[in-house]
Design goal:
The protein is α/β, with parallel strands linked by helices. It has one domain (2-165): Rossmann fold (3-Layer(aba) Sandwich), CATH 3.40.50. It is built from five helices and six strands, in the order E-H-E-H-E-H-E-H-E-E-H. It has helices spanning 29-44, 58-71, 89-98, 113-123, 155-165, and strands at residues 2-7, 51-54, 77-79, 104-109, 137-142, 147-153. The mean pLDDT is 94.
Length: 166
């Protein structure tokens, strides 16, 4: 299986437009635009996904919905509590071990969790703090004995690829 990790796009901060909790934060106008350019960048790479999993939090869900719509994959979009902030990297790896049908899965989630997952899955660093900016995409080939980082693009680079696609 190749597991792709996408950090959600730019969201409004706490306190803006009546946002009282982290869970309520939603994408800004700039975040929606970046999400669309990122999705077109993913499309330009020729990536397709058997499943698109998203954290249930609004900003991740909105990012995943934008990507799914642009890729024509809305029926493959599912909410996944494993991707909630505070996720444990081992829990996501355990989920992938149980999932036998999917070969290419996109997970839309949060930092520092996605960065910690990359550190753990690829380098076996349990307390790793890999920096992973908004709309960045990583692809990890999960193997029997080792996992390999196969793709790592910043959101800015994906957006540039998406602009070329227009």
């Amino acid at each position: 299986m190749t597991l792709y990790l996408l950090r959600h796009s730019l969201a409004l901060p706490l306190g803006a437009r009546g946002i009282a909790t982290d869970e309520e934060r939603f994408l800004s106008d700039e975040g929606r635009a970046l999400g669309a350019r990122t999705a077109r960048g993913i499309q330009a790479l020729g990536l397709e996904f058997d499943q698109i999993l998203t954290s249930p939090l609004v900003r991740a869900r909105q990012t995943a919905e934008i990507v799914a719509k642009i890729l024509g994959a809305q029926e493959r979009l599912k909410h996944c509590d494993v991707l909630r902030p505070g996720m444990k990297p081992k829990r996501l790896l355990d989920w992938t071990a149980e999932e036998k049908k999917a070969r290419h899965v996109l997970c839309v989630g949060h930092q520092p969790d996605l960065g910690a997952f990359i550190s753990y899955a690829v380098w076996k660093i349990k307390q790793g703090r890999f920096s992973f900016s908004e709309c960045s995409l990583a692809g990890i080939e999960l193997g029997e004995e080792t996992n390999k980082l196969r793709l790592l693009l910043t959101g800015e680079r994906l957006a540039q690829l998406g602009e070329r696609r227009r």
